[in-house]
Specification:
By secondary structure, the protein is mostly beta strands. Among the domains are: about 100 residues, Beta Barrel (Thrombin, subunit H), CATH 2.40.10; about 100 residues, no CATH class. About 5% of the residues lie in helices and about 55% in strands. It has one helix and 44 strands. The strands form eleven sheets. It has a seven-stranded antiparallel sheet, with no helix packed on it. The protein has a four-stranded antiparallel sheet with strand order 1-44-43-42, with no helix packed on it. Strand 11 and strand 12 form a beta hairpin. The longest helix has 12 residues.
Length: about 425
């Protein structure tokens, strides 16, 4: 009998319009946005889980449920455990605190100290640390009594907590800071291979990084040796083992040894984005690649950052904005007063009357220029006004269809849906 009643509830929860799901207040007090094709629902202060077809995976008996990377972390009667999104228990025991750190390890807490157990519930690290970070390159940064150290994925201590700060590993090196606030680096064995003497530095990217010492800039390798000696002129990292070097009032592009990649000098050089480097000459902008080839000529007074091979640019003849491809061709003709923001493949465009709309990467109008104050909330959802009425607007980038909803009842949204709630029901408007 109970199964028949449940099936009836599931059937009546959905409207005939498959793009909208409706849940009455009698069913749930709150319905959260979908994550990993499941969602948390609340009834009488207890949480449960339903799937994309509204089938009950977990009944509303839990104090708290968190969906995390395909797993569900539950709290019930002051104990915590882990369940798969199919509703299967992943651990035999329950703990006062537990959280998945990755596929193989779980963070536990006893008496305000953190430890690690395996998915087989073997103690990997006894609860003794104040913090345990995510594993990067097989290593985790841990803290104890405001000092930081390193453990490996087998729970072995690589470095006892001795530093006031350690940044996560990158390219086999971790930035450390000493008690006197000087920076250096340790390797994966926990050995301080670059002594903590520098006033400033950055993570290694490739085989080198920039350092600052006594107001002088240099470049070092992973042994701490200088590949480019300290000097007063500014050095900025542009890309992996590529830097900009100041030469009088201009900058040139060079490798980690300071050797010029190209002879040209620029007023400014920006960080590499999508394989392109922004450069400026005579107040005009363009793009070069990492070996110095010109991709976008240096002739634009306004030029945006690369976005999936597309660049917003101001046409110097008309003074209007369009979108370039990497062949310096306008794939969206320059006919807008401004192009102010974008998601992956959508762009907000405006005219001289400050009316705004949305186009896609092919220049097709998705929203006509009838809106104002448009802002992307994520790749598919915008907030804006039409006729002075605030709206959430969801856009299906495949079909171009839009979902427009008054802001007053919106309680949440994601790339795939917008959720509204009033005194009678919760509605989920599907975008994709």
């Amino acid at each position: 009998m109970k199964k028949i009643i449940l099936a009836t509830l599931i059937f009546t929860a959905c409207r005939k319009d498959e793009s909208v799901l409706s849940f009455s207040k009698k069913e749930y007090d709150y319905v959260a946005k979908s994550k990993d094709n499941i969602r948390v629902v609340l009834k009488d202060k207890k949480q449960g889980i339903i799937d994309k077809n509204n089938k009950v995976i977990l009944p509303n008996v839990y104090d708290s449920l968190i969906i995390h990377e395909g797993k569900i972390v539950f709290t019930k009667d002051k104990k915590m455990g882990i369940i798969s999104k199919e509703g299967k228990s992943l651990l035999k025991q329950e703990y006062s605190y537990i959280f998945p750190l990755n596929e193989d390890y779980f963070l536990i807490n006893e008496k305000n100290k953190f430890g690690l157990i395996t998915k087989d519930e073997k103690i990997l690290v006894e609860p003794k640390y104040d913090k345990i970070g995510k594993f990067q390159e097989g290593l985790s940064i841990v803290s104890l009594n405001k000092k930081y150290g390193v453990i490996n994925e087998y729970g072995r201590v690589i470095l006892e907590p001795v530093y006031p700060f350690i940044r996560e590993y990158a390219d086999d090196m971790a930035l450390v800071v000493s008690d006197d606030k000087k920076a250096g680096f340790i390797n994966k064995s926990g050995v301080e291979v670059v002594h903590t003497i520098y006033d400033y530095t950055e993570n290694f990217l490739g085989d080198s990084t920039m350092v600052l010492l006594n107001d002088k800039f240099g470049i070092i390798d992973k042994t701490g040796e200088y590949t480019f000696n300290l000097q007063e002129n500014r050095i900025n990292r542009i890309s992996k083992d590529i830097y900009s070097f100041k030469d009088k009032d201009l900058f040139y592009l060079g490798n980690r040894f300071g050797k010029e990649i190209m002879e040209s000098r620029f007023e400014s050089i920006g960080e590499e984005k999508e394989g392109l480097i922004s450069v400026k000459v005579d107040d005009k902008f363009g793009y070069i690649d990492k070996i110095g080839n010109t991709i976008i000529p240096i002739k634009y007074s306004e030029l945006g950052e690369p976005n999936n091979g597309m660049i917003i640019a101001k046409d110097e003849e008309t003074g209007l904005f369009g979108i370039l491809n990497l062949k310096n061709e306008f794939i969206v003709k320059p006919k807008y007063t401004y192009i102010s923001a974008r998601s992956k493949n959508l762009f907000i465009v405006g005219n001289e009357d400050f009316k705004e709309g949305v186009i896609n990467k092919d220049g097709v109008v998705i929203l006509p220029l009838n809106y104002s104050n448009l802002t992307f909330k994520n790749d598919n959802v915008l907030l804006g006004e039409i006729n002075n009425e605030p709206k959430y607007i969801g856009i299906n980038q495949t079909t171009g269809e839009k979902t427009e909803i008054d802001i007053k009842n919106v309680i949440d949204y994601s790339d795939d849906e917008i959720i509204t709630q009033d005194t009678k029901e919760t509605k989920i408007f599907k975008i994709n």
